[in-house]
Fold this sequence. Notes:
This protein has two helices and seven strands; from the N terminus they run βαβββαβββ. The protein is of the alpha/beta class. The chain is globular.
Amino acid sequence: MPEVVNLLHASLLVADLARSRDFYEGLLGLKPSPARPEMSFTGIWYDVGAAQIHLICLPNPDPVTGRPAHGGRDRHTALGVRGFAELRARLDAVGVSYTLSQSGRGALFVRDPDGNALELVAVV
Length: 124
């Protein structure tokens, strides 16, 4: 039986790459990966541990409006965060809304400018 052993990357559709880069780089602190190849469409790669996030600037076939207010009830990508309290303070400072994990653990759900849900989980 084949065995899936790890997640390599998650691709997220975005409408405005510059706006998305402000969010992922400016707010979350991710850095573009110089090791990834150019594609036939606009996008950018970020290394996140051993995996990557790939932002792809292509039309989104899914509705952005009408999504659940709590990203945990929507498809989402979970990222481990060191300095969770500082990131939460940064979100508060710039007025980015989020919801706390309903499990009571150190985690929150936020949406990027295109409505993609991210779960940000505190890690030591």
